[in-house]
Amino acid sequence: MARSLPKYPLIDYERLHEHQFAALQQLIKRVYGQSGFYRDKLKTAGLKPEDIQTLADFAHIPFTVKQELREHPIEYMQAAEEEEIVRIHASSGTTGKPTIIPYTKNDVDAFTDMMARCLSFAGVNRSDRVQITPGYGLWTAGIGFQSGTERIGAMAIPMGPGNTEKQLEMMLDLKASVIIGTASYGLFLAEEIARRNLRDKVSLRAGVFGSERWGEKMRQRISSILNIDTFDIYGLTEIYGPGIGIDCHHHCGIHYWSDYVYFEIIDPDTGEVLPVGEKGELVITTLTKEGLPLLRYRTRDITRLLPEACSCGSPYPMIDRILGRSDEAFKVKGVLVFPGQIDAALKGTPGASSEYQVIVTRQDGKDCILLRVEGEPEADPDETAAACRQNIKRVIGILADVEVVPQRSLPRSERKTKRVFDQRNRG
Question: pLDDT, tens digit, for every residue of 225-236?
Fold first, then answer.
């Protein structure tokens, strides 16, 4: 039986990676000569820059993990002279000690360029007024979005996080057309706008949300309440910050900036590089970063390289939206479950809203999973619960108890929303 042709042309990843390889070789030479950390790391692995002649050779370079960035002083890690470092950022520290990252002027310029590129993909232009709700200070997001906004020539409204009353006041007074924040806060603001009957008074037309994995149901809910298009922006502080990729108006994957970063997908258990299209852990190498370049950094984010070009016509390749983190997955009844699979089950469930909690317990020696999900106001709770149970079985392969609760009854967050509660290890 003949295979059907793909809807859009396949991306020539072999050619792309060959084009990136020259930058990879230059990077390896630079970090070997200027970073004590990477020189020692490569020597321990028995590798010198001249040993890396092919991408197969590159795959022998040891991975870099977050714990290494936390353990060593930046003077040992960085690959630039002290006088070249113009800025310091740090991760939020939600999973441990914050990670300190130094930036040179060229790093800041590259970060700004990528942010501006992301905002342009979301349709932001000089006539827009962009309300920026992520944090400033050590976190990359606030100042990064502001720099990208200003690079485009749009007006930045640098609100920072929280203070919803002031957020709504400025949104109305300044007629903000674009809102930026975490998806959780985007939903929180949308629901507040609806509750206060302000939908006809706000001027929003687009939203850019990131810093956490969020599903299609949440996208649909935010978009429908505010009547805006929403975009999923991707990034990590360790790499640059948010802005190394974003989805376009077609929302079929996240375009990543292959002139700045090299992406690999690996088996999270074996470390083996997986073929294009196979799901695994994303590993990132920075091609041009100077302050703290990273070789084969394990993100713990689960996704895949998408084989097809996007219908938008962009030359930039795509990854799938993040399914979850390898260290966030939980095993129930012998099955490994990612939060993104819950989102996929909810997406196909009529009557289910976007907000949910997963409670995992152990009773009589057996794993039990309860999904508490908010129902749409007009939906029948019993029918929604039954459909949700079927979809969880179809998507994940396990039986789960489902409790449908009223909309807005689950907690809301101005930052990231915690959704999984594993109570099996409690004393």
Answer: 999 999 999 999
